[in-house]
Amino acid sequence: MFVPASLDGIDRDILRVLDRHPRATTQYIAQDLKLARGTVLAHLRRLTESGLLAPATSRLDGAVVGKPLRVFVRAEVDQNRFDGLVEDLERVPEIIECSAVSGGSDLLIELVAADPDDVYRVTQRIMRCRGIRRTDSSFVLRQVIPRRMEQLL
């Protein structure tokens, strides 16, 4: 992967458009930036192949699938029992993201749930995963700043 300093002006412009309009087509980006479609394609290919730009995905709101609650679960892990833990967590469909973190906990798990009883059920399932010692949950009440990257470009 190349370092961000190697981004040129066109790369930064394309990334700004994609931050505002994540599903923008190559044609839309080319028209918006007044660039040739081939130029945009070449830059997108380079950004993707370098690993700087992740492949496009659709991010659903949990409410769409009947799970309107978003919850962050911090988990403490017995490091001697870490083998197999990730595989166990991957089998919990309500987990939408999991990151190893520093601080008082080892994992930060984001999950979606239908209601508080569903959160309880899912966190109990997490507790049965290999190596999990304890968990602590925080419900998302409201998103005040959505994920953004444009301001960094």
UniProtKB/TrEMBL annotation:
<protein>
    <submittedName>
        <fullName>Lrp/AsnC family transcriptional regulator</fullName>
    </submittedName>
</protein>
<dbReference type="InterPro" id="IPR036390">
    <property type="entry name" value="WH_DNA-bd_sf"/>
</dbReference>
<dbReference type="InterPro" id="IPR011008">
    <property type="entry name" value="Dimeric_a/b-barrel"/>
</dbReference>
<feature type="domain" description="Transcription regulator AsnC/Lrp ligand binding">
    <location>
        <begin position="74"/>
        <end position="143"/>
    </location>
</feature>
<dbReference type="InterPro" id="IPR019887">
    <property type="entry name" value="Tscrpt_reg_AsnC/Lrp_C"/>
</dbReference>
<dbReference type="Pfam" id="PF01037">
    <property type="entry name" value="AsnC_trans_reg"/>
</dbReference>
<dbReference type="InterPro" id="IPR036388">
    <property type="entry name" value="WH-like_DNA-bd_sf"/>
</dbReference>
<dbReference type="Pfam" id="PF13412">
    <property type="entry name" value="HTH_24"/>
</dbReference>
<dbReference type="InterPro" id="IPR019888">
    <property type="entry name" value="Tscrpt_reg_AsnC-like"/>
</dbReference>
